[in-house]
Amino acid sequence: MPETHRADRTKDLILATAERLYAQHGVTAVSNRQIGEAAGQGNNTAVGYHFGTRADLARAILRRHSGEIEAIRARLIDRCAGSEDLRDWVDCLVRPFTDHLAELGSPTWYARCAAQVMTDPALCRLVIDDALTAPAVRAAVEGMNRCLPGLPAPVRAERNDMARNLIVHMSAERERALADGTAVARPTWDATATGLTDAIVGLLRAPVTRA
What we know:
mainly alpha
């Protein structure tokens, strides 16, 4: 096998292993050495050699999925062009994440891994910054904002943060329940997306208490 192909396979294996371990145990509880051992790497420095710091590894895991998620979102954005329905634009934020999880099959680890990264103070900006720089995400948020002209900008920003947490953490809860074989609130990822969209539309349209 050519050296470049072997290196690519090693990197893919490390990423998949790190994603699973981060999902199960949290980011700070898992060392690069543990990831390397679980990935069958005899060299204790293999993870650092291929990915650098823990932040670099976490970013690589997120980007391993972001391309497919953004491709789904771009297709939805095209369908919604010109829409004045808030629900259409919220769906453009929610459904790409859940559709991607559905396409991965079972079990999946990505939602739980993303949730663990989001709750790590040193890494949470990775999720936010990657999202805010994605063109399709910006287009969806701009579409939402056009449907909420009376919502003050600070409240809108706060509720966007709430929506992001709902999408990731509720998906992580469903993913965990599926992995554990326990009851889930909705039968499919498609139905989960519908429920999340309902909740986020309600959240965005909730009354604002004036100070």
